[in-house]
Amino acid sequence: MRRSSAATPRVSGASDRPLAVTRWASIALLVAVSGVVLVATLWPTPIDRGHRRTISRFLGVLHDIGVPEWFAYAQFEFAANVVMFAPLGFLLVLALSARRWWLAVALPFAGSVSIEIIQGGLLHERYASAADVAANTLGALIGAALALGLRAVVHARDRAVAAERAATGASTRAMPYSVNR
Q1: Which pairs with CB-CB distance under 8 Å and at least 24 residues apart come from 107-111?
Q2: Range of lowest pLDDT (32-36, 165-169, 172-176)
Q3: Model-level pTM?
Q4: For residues 136 and 109, is the Cβ–Cβ distance under 8 A?
Q5: Which end of the chain has fewer beta carbons closer than 10 Å to its terminal beta carbon, N or C?
Q6: Are 80 and 101 a contacting pair, CB within 8 Å?
């Protein structure tokens, strides 16, 4: 549902420059993170090759500090995929307009499906996995939810500051910006 301009007043004199900087910084980080994800997922050999022993030791440490024994390599790999895709969802929400937040989940899902098709069809030492698509999409969803929460907090703060300034007649030139546009 779209809000009317009466419900969300535009503060006269507020600059869009900080919003543009935030959007472009998000896009730049998104490009960098996407590059890392593509290298990790499209490398010809599994990224964990030669590191199984280190991962087993790490899991042992986790178990020693209370992580349940059922959390084994498969769960570790799933969690790693979630963590790898969370920044993509987060940055996409910040780079896109608020009404297009759903693309922050849809685009990583489509990208993940494409990656798995390439892994299964072209990379002979890799294999396609529906579990990876699920983990990657869940990561993007978590990242998007965190960014939407951030937008809501910033928007609420901006509305409160605007209302306070309107009530006191203070200048709006130094108005904080909202990432919820």
Answers
A1: 107/140, 108/136, 108/137, 108/139, 108/140, 109/133, 109/136, 109/137, 109/140, 111/136
A2: 172-176
A3: 0.80
A4: yes
A5: N
A6: no
